[in-house]
């Protein structure tokens, strides 16, 4: 994926008034990836120690897959429609993960509230970009 052509492509897209500048995304995702690594890693470790069932691990694993697919879809394929579907799956699996862990390890759900807020915002942003560039 050529980052210069991807950046140029993204820059030319029509965006809603609330779209943040590109410089916001790096710091936000850096913090969120630390939260994800700690909390999702904890869930995986608890699963491996047989302290959590697979049905609790599954939405966390799917969330990582959908999260990892977003950038190649949006900036590699330059496909807003598929990126919209993917971000909806990121949001859905995150809500599912937080719900699945809530009764067992509430702190894992709570520490992911900033991730949920950002993914909710990113979903609204992506859907708006897709609509504006249809």
Q: Which class do the helix and strand fractions yield?
A: mainly alpha
Rg = 16 Å
The amount of helix comes to over 70%
Q: For the terminal residues, how far apart are their CA atoms?
A: 23 Å
**Can you tell me the overall shape?**
elongated
Enumerate the spans where pLDDT stays under 50 for 5 or more consecutive residues: none
Q: Strand portion, in percent? A: under 5%
Number of strands: 0
Number of helices: 6
Kindly report the oligomeric state of this protein.
single chain
Q: H/E order of the elements? A: HHHHHH
Number of domains: 1
What is the residue-mean pLDDT, rounded to a whole number? 96
Which sheet architecture does the biggest sheet show? none
Gist of the model:
By secondary structure, this protein is an all-alpha fold.
Verbal overview:
The chain is mostly helical and 134 residues long. It has one domain. The protein contains six helices and no strands. Helix 2 runs antiparallel to helix 3 and helix 3 runs antiparallel to helix 4. The radius of gyration is 16 Å and the shape is elongated.
